[in-house]
Amino acid sequence: MKIVLYICLLFSSLLYANVIEVGPTKPIKSIKKAISLAKVGDTIMVHQGLYKEGNIIINKKIVFLGKNLPVLDGQKKYEVLSIKADSVVVDGFKVIKSGYATLEDPCGIKVYNRNDVVIQNNVLDDNFFGIYIQNGRRCIIKNNRLVAYGTEEQKLGNGIHCWKSDSLQIIGNTISGHRDGIYFEFVTNSIIWRNISTRNIRYGLHFMFSNDDAYISNIFKNNGAGVAVMFTKNVKMFNNFFEENWGDAAYGLFLKEISDSYIIGNKFSKNTSGIHMEGTNRIQVEKNVFEANGWGMKILASCSDNVIKNNNFLGNTFDISTNGSLVLNTFNNNYWDKYEGYDLDKNGVGDVPFHPLSLFAVLTETNPSAMLLFRSFMITLLDKSEKILPSITPDNFIDNSPLMHSLAL
Amino acid sequence: MNRIIRIIFLDILKNKIILAYTIILGILSWSSFGLEDNSAKGLLTILNIILFTVPLVSILFATIYLYNSSEFIELLLSQPIKRKKIWLSLFLGLSLSMILAFFIGAGIPLLVYSADSVGLMMLVVGCLISLVFVALAFLSSILTRDKSKGIGIAIMSWLYFALLFDGIVLFLLFQFSDYPIEKAMVAVTALSPIDLARIQILLQLDASAMMGYTGAIFKNSFGTSLGLLISFLLLCSWVIIPFFISLIKFKNKDL
Amino acid sequence: MIEIKNLNKKFGKLEVLSDVNLTFKKGECIALIGPNGCGKTTLIKTILGMVIPTKGDVLFNEKSILKEYLYREQIGYMPQIGRYPDYMTIGQIIEMIKKIRNSNQTLDEDLLKAFDLEKIFGKQMRTLSGGTTQKVSATLAFLFNPEVLILDEPTAGLDPLASEILKDKIIKEKEKGKLILITSHLLSELDDMITQIIFMQDGKVHFHKTIADLLESTNEQKISKAIAKILKSQSNE
To answer: Which molecular-function annotation in GO is an example for this chain (chain C) (predicted)?
Structure first.
């Protein structure tokens, strides 16, 4: 990609654009001066060095290129880079120490109401907000590395924060230590692909009022509360990893008021709850793996018409839990490692239905401290007898065709 | 002392019941681990062994062995040996053989299939539980001279710790569910060695679930290194206190 | 050598020994007799430290035996019914006791040879008859050349031949100047060996006399008759 870009740059500069070089050993030593000299279409090439120039504003359509990661320092006072022109490219900078303010949200790099901006191959270290797209369209944020070090939610901004935008591409970024790794609010028709979001204080991905988006092949690991997707319809969540999101209110994936969406081919492992669903409708949960979670799925009674099929449930403490007796969702052809039925006709599907909801899961839902007795001999007895003669658990909470062998997922 | 421990230890090892116990543990463990490619089922089997079989066999075998060796104890007493030494040797001999049986039967498959924190925790806790119930056997056999009564006491105490105690806790939990009793309940579990053992294993085995909800309270009280230390000290005191009481009683016993 | 002072023992409410005072010296061979349940075995076990007295004390070489154990090195004890770990062989039992005692003294293996035990060294204890078990017990009691021998019903269960062997051994040891304490209710057995007799009843010492005294005072030739006479005269009183 980089090479192609350089070649393009080479050609464009040969044809009609200038390259303005900035560096400690070059004639022009200040970035701000270079910007003021540049014409639309020019390239500013910044060489290695430490630049403390306060707030740098790019208000022309230029290519802003860093060579060997020049450092732009905000000295904890300024927003470092503000982009106020369309089609700007920012490539190869190390942006550090943006200011901190609760009202203005100063950022490492912020795009103000502009389109087609490309921000790539940058390192953002210790900024309040990392990269902020405000009301942008068709912007690309790619292969950036964002790190922050805060411990309190109030003193931390989000890694990649997108608001009221459309057709964005967030690809291959690595984000850790921010409040939310990636934050989407009123963002539509966008894709989040192959990002790694770990150890953020709140959510790995925070997603609200953002319809018609997809996130694919991302890794969300060890975030304070996992991933939250709320008040949205038509989201596609494919092939992501949700791992080790542990804690009091931590979920692999938290869904609230979601409808007409697809959760396919994801892997949920070692989360307190794999998926927590509240008020979701018409969601397809398919071909996912739920492994070693506290609760595989928590489906509250406010959910309806969701289809859960062809998933593997392996080694979860509880596979499914719910808070009511109303069941409006269907389970089909899942593999449950707790299934103890038989398959006489050898068609790979168990001959007796499986009740994925254990008595004890219901007990702990009403009285969480009963967890204290989990796996005690008496509870095992109670659970077994409930499996044979369901009395407390809803009897239509059932997988009628449980698989005998786990699916290759 | 070593001489007597060795004599007792070798005598127990020749006992067919101990051999059968080891073999049964081994069959259960190996087969449940081998059944599926993940170790979850094997771990659950061993958990149930630790919570159910180990206490039962340890307390019953030790009690019966003590009653059956009353003449041997008499023989030793007529020799120039301290009473304390005899009782301690019996305890160490019995404990050692129960631990050995558990280690060979369940410990080796554990180490082979699950040599991580869960496996190690189970191994340690299984050994401790063996010790606790051997100590309780010493207490129940010293309480009465009548063999059948002594075995009765042993079975009752096993039943109490393995089953009834949890029933009482469950009852309390639901009776007082409107009150903030989590912390009190944490303290209550210290009254049962099996529960202490179970929760320590649970914190390793079901880490994800234990982290959530009030699980956090358990994690905070049991899962910290201080909590771990306290749990182990409590388990150890479940070994030391019953044995110590039995020792005092044995010192003043007429044979 | 052994002094028993104001010894009292209660099992719950039952008084088994009440105010027993006795002194045994070296070279004496004492028969402890009395009806069943008179407290003979309890007395012996108190001396061995197996029963802990409710009141009173036992001195062994002028030292109290309470909380002590080393004095037992000088005692050989043959229990009434010797029972041993089932799966050990005779050889292993003898080896075990040797190891426990761990003494450097020369062993007295007279009985071992006399009873021909070496031939059946490999037999497990649980397969032995009562008599053979008694032979093992006797052998163990004499094995370490102890100063004091305490024999609880030594000849019960032994065949006449073995019984004779044991009696000869007891007499031999007596002549070496050892203190020997025998309980028995077979009075006829004791005639040739004992020098003193203690008769116990209901936890009390009825009388403690030398044989000479006893025979003289009753004008009888046999111990059993002499005792019968005493008992008769007392019941008439």
So the answer is: ATP hydrolysis activity
CB within 8 Å of B138: residues ≥ 6 apart: B62, B66, B87, B90, B91, B242, B243, B246, B247
Amino acid at A250: A
Closest residue of chain A to B182, computed from CA coordinates: A369
Domain boundaries, chain C: 2-236
* Contacts with C69 from chain B: Cβ below 8 Å: 80-83
Tell me the two tokens of residue B74. Answer: 């008499």
Interface of B with A (CB under 8 A): 36, 38, 40-41, 44, 47-48, 51-52, 162-163, 166-167, 169-170, 173-174, 177, 181-182, 185-186, 189, 194-195, 198-199, 201-202, 205-218
Task: Give chain B's domain count.
Answer: 1
* Mean pLDDT of all residues in A21-28: 88
**CATH 2.40.50.140 assigned to A39-388:** no
Cβ contact C75–B15 (<8 Å): no
Q: What angle do CA A163, A165, A170 make, to 5 degrees?
A: 90
For CA atoms B168, B169, B174, B178, the dihedral sign is positive
Q: In what order do the strands lie in the sheet with C63-64?
A: C14-24, C2-11, C55-60, C63-64
The residues in A 275-314 lying below 8 A from B, measured between CB atoms, are 292-295, 314
Does domain C2-236 match CATH 3.40.50.300? yes
Contact at CB, C75 and B78, closer than 8 angstroms: yes
Please give the Cα distance from A254 to A55 (Å, whole number). 38
What is the pTM (predicted TM-score) of this model? Answer: 0.78
Convert the pLDDT of each residue in A94-137 to its tens digit: 999 888 877 778 899 999 999 999 999 999 999 999 999 999 99
Measured between beta carbons, the chain B residues lying within 8 angstroms of A404 are none
B119 φ, ψ (degrees, to nearest 5): -60, -45
Q: Is B254 on the interface with C (CB under 8 A)?
A: yes
**pLDDT tens digits, one per residue of C47-81:** 888 888 888 888 988 888 888 888 888 888 888 88
* Owning domain of residue B144: 2-251
**Measured torsion, CA atoms of residues B200, B203, B209, B210, in degrees rounded to the nearest 10:** 70
Mutate to test the interface with B, among A268, A270, A273, A373 (most CBs of B within 10 A): A373
